[in-house]
C-alpha cells in the first residue's frame, strides 16, 4: 500500500464510515490515519472501529494510525423555560449559576470557572459566535452583559470566551474515562482539545506515560501566546480552525495557520490542518473551488496532514471526499512551486550529529537522484528529522516497533514498515535494499540513502549515512 504523495490524509470515522467495507474503501481511496471523535459515539462503537482497522492493517500488511480525539470541556448554556430567547443589540442580559430554566430576566450558565475568570469587557460568544455579549459587571454568582451582536439563544448552545483564561483543566472526568479506554485499545495518537498552555500537555503526557503520542489541538487564542512551549511539549500539533475561527477574527486564522505550521516544522513535530476543509462535500459530491484552494494552501504551507471531519464521518459522500483530497494533494505536490516553497522554508540544521546527517541525507538523495531515504529507528526520532528536511524523495521508515510504525504514518513523506531490528551494519544495508524493493519504492539499479544510529537501539543517535545500490 504505497501512496504516490507526501502529505497525509486523516479521515474521521462516524455513521457514514462505520462498516468494515466502508473503512476498507476509505483506506484504499487514500486515508492514512483514522480519527475517533470521542465527542460522539459509545465506547463499544469505538472498540469495534479499532478492531476493524487492526484487521485491515493485517489484510493490507501496512500500519494504520488511529487518533483518539478527546472531547474536552464543553461550555454550554442551560435550558429556557419558554423556548429560544431573541436578544437585541444593547439589551442587558444576566447570567447566573441557578439550574432553573432561563427566563427573559436571567440565563443559566452552570460553569463556575467562567464566573471566576470573568472581568469587565470580557467577551461571551454564543452558538459559534453568532451572538456576542460584553461583560459589564460581575460578582461571584452573576455576570451582567450587554448584547453587541444580536441573535437568538436557546437550550444548550455552546459558549466561547476568547479573551478570558479559564482556571480549568482541558481534561474532564469524561476525558479521563475515554483516555483510559482508548489506551486499553491501543490507539496511537491522543488529541487534547482546548489547550491553553504547555502544562495542559504535560498533564496529559503523565497520564499517557508513553503509550501513545500526544497532539495539541490549537483552538484557543491563549494557546498562541504559549505556542513555542506547547509545541515543545507536544508530539504533534493540530490547527483546529473551527473554534479558533470563532474566538479570533476569521481574517487572523490564515496567517496564524502559516505561523503554527512553520514553528512546528522547525521543531520537527507533525502537523494536521483541520476543520471545514471540504465542508460542502457533506451534502454534495464535489467541493467548492474555494475549499479546494483552502486544502491546497495548507499543502503549500507544508502541513504533514489534512483532515476530514463530518465529510467522512456523517456526510453523504465520504469516499468521494477522501478521493478528492487525494487528488488535490497530488496536484499540489506536482507543481514545481511546491518544491521551491519546501526548499525555501527549510531552516538551518542544529549543530548536532543527527541534524547534520539528516541534512546530508536530503542533499545526497537530491544530488544522486536516489529512489528514497531509508531511516532505521526505534522511537521515530531519526525519521522525524528526515521529514523536517522535506526531501524530494519519500522516506522509508524501518522500525522493529509497531507502535512507532503506526505513529509515523501521520508524518510527511514517510512510508513506515515494521521489520526486525538490524543485527549489524551490513545487515542494515541489505535489509534496506530488500524492503525498498518489496515495497516497490526502489528498483534494480537505483540508489538509496540510508541513515541510522549506532549502536542500534539508541534513541536519537543518528550518526551514520550510507549510499546503497539496489
β-strand number: 21
Percent of residues in helices comes to: 25-40%
Strand content range? 15-25%
Backbone shape: elongated
Could you list the spans in which at least 5 consecutive residues all have pLDDT below 50? none
CATH homologous superfamily descriptor of the largest domain: Phosphoenolpyruvate-binding domains
Which CATH architecture of the largest domain? Answer: Alpha-Beta Barrel
Radius of gyration: 24 Å
C-alpha termini separation: 20 Å
CATH fold field value of the largest domain? TIM Barrel
Q: Number of helical runs?
A: 17
Strand order of the largest sheet: 1-2-3-12-13-14-15-16
Look at the helices and sheets and give the structural class.
alpha/beta
> What is the averaged pLDDT score?
94
Note down, in words, how this protein is organized.
Helix 1 packs parallel to helix 12 (318-333). The chain has helices at 20-29, 43-60, 112-117, 173-185, 198-208, 221-225, 227-233, 241-247, 253-267, 289-300, 310-313, 318-333, 336-344, 353-368, 381-388, 402-408, 425-438, and strands spanning 8-13, 33-37, 65-69, 85-87, 92-96, 107-108, 123-126, 131-138, 142-149, 151-153, 159-160, 189-192, 213-218, 236-240, 271-274, 305-308, 372-376, 394-399, 414-418, 447-453, 462-469. The strands form four sheets. An eight-stranded parallel beta barrel has the order 1-2-3-12-13-14-15-16, surrounded by seven helices. It has a six-stranded mixed β-sheet with strand order 6-5-9-8-7-11, with helices on one face. The protein has three domains: 8-72 and 171-335, Phosphoenolpyruvate-binding domains (TIM Barrel, Alpha-Beta Barrel), CATH 3.20.20.60; 85-160, PK beta-barrel domain-like (M1 Pyruvate Kinase, Domain 3); 353-469, Pyruvate kinase, C-terminal domain (Pyruvate Kinase, Chain: A, domain 1), CATH 3.40.1380.20. It has 470 residues and is an alpha/beta fold.
Amino acid at each position: 500500500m504505497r501512496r504516490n504523495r507526501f502529505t497525509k490524509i486523516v479521515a474521521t470515522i462516524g455513521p457514514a464510515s462505520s462498516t468494515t467495507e466502508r473503512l476498507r474503501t476509505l483506506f484504499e481511496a487514500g486515508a492514512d490515519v483514522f480519527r475517533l471523535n470521542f465527542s460522539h459515539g459509545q465506547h463499544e462503537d469505538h472498540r469495534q472501529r479499532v478492531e476493524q482497522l487492526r484487521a485491515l492493517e493485517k489484510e493490507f500488511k501496512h500500519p494504520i494510525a488511529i487518533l483518539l480525539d478527546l472531547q474536552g470541556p464543553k461550555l454550554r448554556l442551560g435550558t429556557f423555560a419558554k423556548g429560544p430567547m431573541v436578544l437585541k443589540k444593547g439589551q442587558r442580559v444576566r447570567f447566573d449559576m441557578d439550574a432553573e430554566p432561563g427566563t427573559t430576566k436571567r440565563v443559566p450558565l452552570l460553569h463556575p470557572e467562567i464566573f471566576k475568570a470573568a472581568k469587565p469587557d470580557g467577551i461571551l460568544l454564543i452558538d459559534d459566535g453568532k451572538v456576542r455579549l460584553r461583560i459589564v459587571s460581575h460578582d461571584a454568582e452573576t455576570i451582567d452583559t450587554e448584547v453587541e451582536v444580536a441573535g437568538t439563544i436557546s437550550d444548550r448552545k455552546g459558549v466561547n470566551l476568547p479573551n478570558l483564561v479559564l482556571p480549568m483543566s482541558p481534561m474532564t472526568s469524561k476525558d479521563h474515562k475515554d483516555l483510559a479506554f482508548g489506551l486499553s485499545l491501543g490507539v496511537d495518537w491522543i488529541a487534547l482539545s482546548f489547550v491553553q498552555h504547555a502544562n495542559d500537555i504535560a498533564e496529559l503526557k503523565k497520564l499517557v506515560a508513553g503509550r501513545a503520542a500526544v497532539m495539541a489541538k490549537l483552538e484557543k487564542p491563549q494557546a498562541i501566546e504559549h505556542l513555542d512551549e506547547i509545541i515543545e511539549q507536544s508530539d504533534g500539533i493540530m490547527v483546529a480552525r473551527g473554534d479558533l475561527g470563532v474566538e479570533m477574527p476569521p481574517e487572523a486564522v490564515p496567517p496564524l495557520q502559516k505561523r503554527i505550521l512553520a514553528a512546528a516544522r522547525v521543531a520537527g513535530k507533525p502537523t494536521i490542518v483541520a476543520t471545514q476543509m471540504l465542508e460542502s462535500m457533506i451534502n454534495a459530491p464535489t467541493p467548492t473551488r474555494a475549499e479546494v484552494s483552502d486544502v491546497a494552501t495548507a499543502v503549500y504551507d507544508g502541513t504533514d496532514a489534512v483532515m476530514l471531519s463530518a465529510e467522512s464521518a456523517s456526510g453523504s459522500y465520504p469516499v468521494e471526499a477522501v478521493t478528492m483530497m487525494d487528488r488535490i494533494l497530488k496536484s499540489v505536490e506536482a507543481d514545481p512551486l511546491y518544491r521551491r516553497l519546501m526548499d525555501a522554508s527549510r531552516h538551518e540544521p542544529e549543530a548536532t550529529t543527527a541534524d547534520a546527517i539528516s541534512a546530508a541525507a536530503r542533499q545526497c538523495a537530491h544530488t544522486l537522484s536516489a529512489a528514497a531515504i531509508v531511516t532505521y529507528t526505534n522511537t521515530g526520532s531519526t525519521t522525524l528529522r528526515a521529514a523536517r528536511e522535506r526531501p524530494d524523495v519519500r522516506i522509508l521508515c524501518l522500525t522493529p516497533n509497531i507502535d512507532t510504525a503506526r505513529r509515523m504514518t501521520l508524518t510527511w513523506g514517510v512510508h513506515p514498515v515494521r521489520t526486525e531490528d538490524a543485527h549489524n551494519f551490513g545487515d542494515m544495508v541489505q535489509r534496506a535494499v530488500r524492503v525498498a524493493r518489496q515495497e516497490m519504492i526502489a528498483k534494480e539499479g537505483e540508489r538509496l540513502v540510508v541513515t541510522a544510529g549506532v549502536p542500534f537501539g539508541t534513541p536519537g543517535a543518528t550518526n551514520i549515512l550510507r549510499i546503497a545500490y539496489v
